[in-house]
């Protein structure tokens, strides 16, 4: 049985995760951020210091500097787990859609879900979806932080169709929660069935209308987002 620790980082609304197989005492750290390393250290201590087998980024972040290379180095790993589509220049372990990462007795399945970024992965483990910035509670990740908006809109549209095929009871754990990210819900997790019913972005089943949805009335871009992306690619 896998355990998922959801770490909401201060008042940022950003979330990091630790996925643990308690029986084998192995874990993966997912989407850690600079300035919040102690949150991860404290959670590993609370969990009895499981062996860190993987350090994972769901995608190249544009609003926070990643601490994944720090944790990969600290734990003597071969690199940060990334999509094979990443342009990350550091030590990395490339993944493709359908790959399985073993964490003790648990299997973490890679779902390649581009759109928010070209290198976005979700991760599925025992009926739980770590959805990164692809699917939020009540919304989806933006497509206007670099790249071709039309191309990325089509990618995201197809990625959402992929996630809709998961069992309705699949729990959804996103990378952002709460009003700080203009997300209406204060819940910290959802389910696929709830999102199919309540998430406006999932109601749009026409690609042209979806492009309008994805480009109309979105919040301001994060401060220094281009510099943050450049930093995270190093």
Report what the structure shows.
This protein has helices at 37-46, 68-74, 149-164, 192-198, 200-203, 207-215, 225-233, and strands at 2-8, 15-21, 26-30, 51-56, 80-83, 92-95, 100-103, 106-112, 121-125, 128-132, 171-174, 190-191. The termini are far apart. It has a single domain, classed as Metallo-beta-lactamase, Chain A. It is globular and about 50 Å long. It is built from seven helices and twelve strands. The protein has 234 residues and is α/β, with parallel strands linked by helices. It has a six-stranded mixed beta sheet. A four-stranded mixed beta sheet has the order 1-2-3-4, covered by helices on one side. Helix 3 (149-164) packs across helix 6. Helix 3 (149-164) links the parallel strand 10 and strand 11.
The tally of domains stands at 1
CATH superfamily: Ribonuclease Z/Hydroxyacylglutathione hydrolase-like
What is the CATH-assigned architecture? 4-Layer Sandwich
Instruction: List the helices and strands in order.
Output: EEEHEHEEEEEEHEEHHHH
Total of helices = 7
Structural class: alpha/beta
Helix fraction by DSSP (H/I, runs of at least 4)? 25-40%
What fraction of the residues are assigned to beta strands by DSSP?
25-35%
From the alpha carbons, calculate the radius of gyration and give it in angstroms: 17 Å
What is the tally of beta strands? 12
Largest sheet: 6 strands, mixed
Unreliable sequence segments: none
Tell me, briefly, the overall form: globular
Predict the CATH topology.
Answer: Metallo-beta-lactamase, Chain A
Strand order of the largest sheet: 7-8-9-10-11-12
- What is the residue-mean pLDDT, rounded to a whole number? 95
Distance between the termini: 35 Å
**CATH class label:** Alpha Beta
Pfam families: Lactamase_B
Protein name: Metallo-beta-lactamase domain-containing protein
Keywords: Metal-binding
GO biological process, one term: hydrogen sulfide metabolic process
């Amino acid at each position: 049985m896998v355990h998922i620790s959801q770490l909401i980082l201060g008042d940022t609304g950003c979330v990091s995760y630790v996925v643990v197989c308690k029986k084998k005492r192995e874990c993966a750290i997912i989407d850690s951020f600079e300035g919040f390393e102690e949150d991860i250290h404290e959670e590993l201590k609370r969990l009895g210091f499981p062996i860190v087998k993987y350090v994972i980024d769901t995608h190249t972040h544009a609003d926070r500097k990643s601490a994944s290379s720090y944790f990969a180095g600290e734990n003597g790993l071969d690199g940060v787990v990334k999509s094979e589509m990443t342009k990350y220049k550091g030590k990395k372990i490339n993944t493709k859609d359908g790959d399985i990462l073993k964490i003790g007795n648990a299997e973490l399945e890679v779902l390649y879900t581009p759109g928010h970024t070209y290198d976005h992965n979700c991760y599925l483990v025992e009926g739980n979806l770590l959805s990164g910035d692809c699917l939020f509670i009540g919304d989806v990740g933006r497509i206007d932080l670099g790249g071709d908006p039309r191309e990325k809109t089509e990618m995201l549209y197809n990625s959402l169709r992929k996630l809709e095929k998961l069992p309705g009871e699949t729990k959804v754990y996103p990378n952002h929660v709460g009003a700080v990210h203009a997300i209406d819900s204060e819940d910290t997790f959802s389910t696929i069935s709830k999102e199919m019913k309540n998430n406006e972005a999932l109601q749009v089943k026409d690609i042209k209308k979806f492009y309008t949805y994805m480009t109309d009335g979105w919040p301001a871009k994060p401060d220094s987002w281009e510099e943050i992306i450049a930093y995270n690619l190093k």
